[in-house]
Design goal:
Layout: E1 7-9, E2 15-17, E3 21-22, H1 29-42, E4 46-48, H2 56-66, E5 74-79, H3 86-100, E6 105-110, H4 117-129, E7 133-139, H5 143-151, E8 159-163, H6 171-179, E9 183-187, H7 195-198, H8 201-210, H9 214-224, E10 228-229, H10 236-241, H11 252-259, H12 278-287
Parallel strand pairs: 3-4, 4-5, 5-6, 6-7, 7-8, 8-9, 9-10
Antiparallel strand pairs: 1-2
Helix pairs in contact: 1-2, 2-3, 3-4, 8-9
């Protein structure tokens, strides 16, 4: 099935499909196989995973099973906090590639700005220069983290993957990223499926006008802001709907109404307050073995 998607170029010219498929919390093998298999069938080629998700191996299996050329896929993974540091990052990258059964990653991100992310970045710069990663970036970084990283880097981060949705549009950080030619990628673009957001009366009106779902309206809002999105679903009809975003356009008035939904509400932890306690790291190290 041919599905329309569009691409956004990173600072180095690499093209990234604007709509990807997130696999966070898809841990049951059968559910994973059904969801990712359907996503590939529909036309998704951009997939976002991470070591901490525990499903890199399953994603690799589905990509191999598709018999579609590796070069057609855009695969992202992330280095977890317990693997920060120069040598640990190199090792973690190798393990991720082995699980995914690939020789290179299209994108590799630092998952959080926990200690030693400067040394982690140095390893990622080297992997990038060796051609083993096409795009290097970060996730859950605030302005101060990015500024600090850029002070110590030879290659600036090319992307920042952050919680973003109408109730938390990340306006200040978004403007900073645009100013520094760093792409903005949204995780939880639908506010983690929050019922109040998806049931919002104004969004319902806009959806009715375009004969679309509220989720499609929210995702289109992201697209028109120039944001890369990685919605996740295990339901075939929603997987299909989430990528059908290029046959309509929101007016400036509609974009303005959605912008007014900003309440500053996160549905996850603040990255600054989530600077990973030693106990949490220890538990996660056990969990991901």
């Amino acid at each position: 099935m041919n599905t329309i998607n569009q691409e956004i170029r990173a600072a180095n010219g690499v093209k990234i499909p604007q709509i990807g498929f997130g696999v966070y919390k898809l841990t049951k093998e059968e559910e994973f196989e059904t969801a990712v298999g359907e996503a590939i069938r529909i036309g998704y080629r951009h997939f976002d995973t991470a070591k901490i998700y525990g499903n890199e191996k399953n994603l690799g299996k589905e990509i191999q099973k598709s018999r579609i050329s590796r070069e057609e896929f855009f695969i992202t993974s992330k280095v977890w906090n317990t693997d920060h540091g120069y040598e640990a990052t190199k090792k973690a990258f190798g393990e991720t590639c082995k699980k995914l059964n690939v020789e290179y990653l299209d994108m590799y991100l630092i998952h959080f700005a926990s200690p030693h992310y400067i040394e982690t970045w140095r390893a990622m710069e080297e992997l990038y220069l060796e051609g083993k990663i096409k795009v290097i970036g970060v996730a859950n970084f605030e302005i101060q983290h990015i500024a600090e990283l850029m002070r110590h880097s030879k290659i600036p981060p090319m992307i920042n993957q952050i919680e973003t949705h109408p109730e938390f549009p990340q306006n200040e950080l978004h403007d900073y990223l645009v100013e520094h030619k760093i792409l903005h990628e949204a995780w939880a673009p639908l506010g983690q499926g929050n019922k109040a957001l998806l049931g919002n009366a104004e969004l319902k009106k806009i959806a009715y006008h375009h004969n679309k779902t509220v989720a499609q309206i929210i995702l289109r809002w992201h697209v028109q802001r120039g944001i890369i999105i990685i919605p996740k679903s295990s339901k075939p009809e929603r997987i299909k709907e989430n990528i059908q975003l290029f046959d309509f356009e929101l007016s400036s008035e509609e974009m303005g109404k959605i912008n007014q939904l900003n309440t500053g509400k996160r549905y996850s932890h603040s990255p600054t307050g989530y600077m990973i306690s030693p106990l949490y790291n220890k538990l996660m190290k056990i969990f991901i073995k």
